[in-house]
């Protein structure tokens, strides 16, 4: 589904790159090449408010990372920088070795086709049913209809809402809506799956099910970054935890807890 | 049906009221645009006809010898400004007079061939040259007087300009109104579909994927309204050619510019195509303007 152009601009997973040591605690883990690197990234908003300050960390291909911190710690800004919704005030964000600030405006979509992103507010289209909501991700890359049908059915099965394919968002629970968003993010087989507070609007039981889906995605070799302040989620998976406080990384621990 | 057209038709169906009101205003705009073109082309055609038929007539004194007049004719024919020279003898003038007044025998009885002067009818390549030619030849030996239609053409040009400027001003206002209407419609579409566009961008839609349907929507309004207006004029011109006012003119061709003439029945086709292209252009530019302003592209 990816265009040749995008492959040239954004090297694929077969491109080996030297692992950069960004943290003494993470260095030993980074055996796989990095998919995402933050190099001394700062973000300052108008009025002088510093949201992120000197952020350095790397996510390897296939890794699972939690970014935790209180509200206002900078987690969402971190996600916005990853998807190039915003640009850093200083430093570099590298996706698969490419400085995403250098990607021209008319090629940003090629970056986003390699990312799967879900948000706390689901961002589903209320006028389309579940199938159509997921199919959108494939229609934008002009995938053939037969391929769209196969892929959408697969991802709906993967997230466990195949039986709701013809339902509309208004008929779904919060947990189901988040699964729709996850299915849509998975449709174009992302290299990095980014979730910003994905369990923020759903009950604990649904959160656990969503977490199961994330584990499944990660087990398929997709790197997962989940920004959350839900300690139950973090403690359950015992994955790498990067803690943000007032825009700075204060700890980066493998197999950590909230 | 192409995907772009399908998307546009879906949008149009969803926004029926917008579509109808936009089309009405834009059809009005392009009807005025068509009227403007029609006036310009008919005026240009009439002007060309007047210019071709405008002559400078040199009237000779009774004592002027025909040989002297013919010598002068030969010398005038060599003038590069002159298109043609025609000699009208006293006898020819009397024949013309008789033809013109054949229903008035009393008048004909009182006039003889000797009363009417011999003359040279001079046609210039450009009507503007007639005044200079008149000045030059009015003092020639044997010439009693000169006559030409300078005033008629000047007056025609004056009223043509007044009409063109009047319609042109109304046209500019309507074009601006149409432009604003398309911009407002696209802005509304962007506002209503803001979250959808956000999602499309999030899942990797290219800029073109998001903005092309909006561009097509604007082009639909402009193209359809211009085509309808052009079709109205095409029907009127073709019907008028075979009957009524235009029929009595017996125009075999119309003049688009000073040296470009086309057959009368080809003109509505050209006008229809021209208006449609202008409509598509207006729709495209209006949508593009709205997209740049409200969609941050």
TrEMBL record, chain A:
Organism superkingdom: Bacteria
GO molecular function: ATP binding; ATP hydrolysis activity; transmembrane transporter activity
Topology class, membrane: Peripheral membrane protein
UniProt cross-references to InterPro entries, sorted A to Z: AAA+_ATPase, ABC_transporter-like_ATP-bd, ABC_transporter-like_CS, ABC_transpr_LolD-like, Cell_div_FtsE, P-loop_NTPase
Ranges of biased composition (kind: Basic and acidic residues): 1-19
Protein name stated in the entry: Cell division ATP-binding protein FtsE
Function: Part of the ABC transporter FtsEX involved in cellular division.
Gene3D superfamilies to which the protein is assigned, alphabetical: P-loop containing nucleotide triphosphate hydrolases (3.40.50.300)
Keywords for this protein: ATP-binding, Cell cycle, Cell division, Cell membrane, Membrane, Nucleotide-binding
GO terms of biological process kind: cell division
Region (Disordered): 1-28
Membrane-spanning intervals of the chain: none
Main location (coarse class): membrane
SMART domains: AAA
Pfam families on file: ABC_tran (PF00005)
Occurrences of domain ABC transporter (ranges): 36-258
Assembly: Homodimer. Forms a membrane-associated complex with FtsX.
Parts forming coiled coils: none
Automatic annotation (TrEMBL), chain B:
Every FtsX extracellular domain range: 56-146
InterPro entries xrefs: ABC3_permease_C, FtsX, FtsX_ECD
One GO biological process term: cell division
Gene Ontology CC annotations of this record: plasma membrane
Chain segments annotated as transmembrane: 20-39, 158-183, 219-240, 260-285
Membrane-topology annotation of the record: Multi-pass membrane protein
Keyword entries, A-Z: Cell cycle, Cell division, Cell membrane, Membrane, Transmembrane, Transmembrane helix
Pfam families on file: FtsX, FtsX_ECD
UniProt domain ABC3 transporter permease C-terminal: residue ranges: 169-287
Cellular compartments annotated: Cell membrane
Domain of life: Bacteria
Keyword Cell cycle: yes
PANTHER family per UniProt: CELL DIVISION PROTEIN FTSX (PTHR47755)
Family to which the UniProt record says this protein belongs: Belongs to the ABC-4 integral membrane protein family. FtsX subfamily.
The name this protein goes by in its record: Cell division protein FtsX
Lineage: Bacteria, Katanobacteria
